[in-house]
Amino acid sequence: MTSPRFYCPAPIAPNQTMALPADLAHHAIRVLRLASGTPVVLFDGRGGQYPARLVIDGKTGVAEIGARQEVEAELAGELILVQGIVSGDKMDWIIEKAVELGASRLVPVAARRSVPLLKGERLEKRRLRWARIVQAASEQCGRNRLMHIDAPRTLDDYLGEPGAPAPDQILCCHPDADRALSQTLAPTARRIALLVGPEGGWSDDELAVATAHQAQPVRFGTRVLRTETAGLALLTAVATLKGWQ
Known about the structure:
Elements: E1 5-7, E2 17-19, H1 22-31, E3 39-43, E4 50-57, E5 60-65, E6 78-84, H2 88-101, E7 105-109, H3 120-141, E8 148-149, H4 155-159, E9 169-173, H5 181-184, E10 191-196, H6 204-212, E11 216-218, H7 227-242
Parallel strand pairs: 1-3, 6-7, 6-10, 7-8, 9-10, 9-11
Antiparallel strand pairs: 2-5, 3-4, 4-5
Helix pairs in contact: 2-3, 2-7
């Protein structure tokens, strides 16, 4: 049986005993009802993982940590999902599944046709929720590195981001594109950005911005996919075509 996996935000060192953060201990002891002595696996999101033994003392827990294991479940290349922001439940779903499918980064884009962007405290709460989804999905799927989620921004801000490593290829999902994904995907590209619009798609101005930054429009099949399907299908297809499983 696979040992329960937990993300621990504090840096982990091998062969030591460490107190577990309160929320992690609560989840392990009160929610999952793990017994003292249960083998678990901890990871801090920086790569690698640590087998440990859970020791419970009342409502608190410590972990007796073993040697670091160089275990990774990352794709051989980088996939960046640039997603037009959609309604809350759909966005949560996209984030969770993007983690499972191996995306290294997700860029939420406040597009012309996106739902209204939250501001201030409500936006910060939403970003904290997204971070928790990334952590939980990583625990479940076996990834030891956390997918990075950017602060929401416009498409122009993302594509014109100064100082950031440029993708080797930018693909813009569009149902009226002339070329299919398999015809457009560059064999040598190792860092690929996938642009997926919100409900209603990208506006003409946004498509012009994407084209100005050398984004290539691609068609994905003969059917029009919903936004919460399109990005995930593209992630899967690109990883498969590149042999990055």
